[in-house]
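Risk register update: the risk of archive-format incompatibility is retired. Evidence:
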Amino acid sequence: SFAGIVRCGLITESCDWSVSECDPHACPPVTTPDCREDQFLVEVREDNSCCYSFLCVCESCIEPVPACSDGEILAVNLSTTNSCCPQYHCVCDVNLCPESSLTCSPGLSLVQTTHPGHCCPDHRCGTHTHTNTHFCTHNSCTHTSKCTHIPSC
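Archived output:
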């Protein structure tokens, strides 16, 4: 059995001497590309060829793509779209927030409360006064400023 011969980086399965050997000096001139700072240069060879060329390859991305919450959509920083690792962030779209499934008792209405850092508002049943919002929870009252018991709670 024949173990195969290496000819200019190519392995043949037979001892066919009629096959011309590859001459790396006969390869066309190759220019080395200028890689960006987030890339590195790799020398590659195509199948069935002994001629090499160069490619710029991206480094692995370290920063994970964020997981967006309810009401948020994933967006890319447009100034980073041509880089190997674009920067992503979550953008709030309140139209994507889930509808409230609460049904309020008579005399109470659905009240939305927004919280810094959260896209979707909280929904509770409560009553509105001029500047205070009161919420009913198990016959007790909580709200955004001074709390006084509301008989309707």
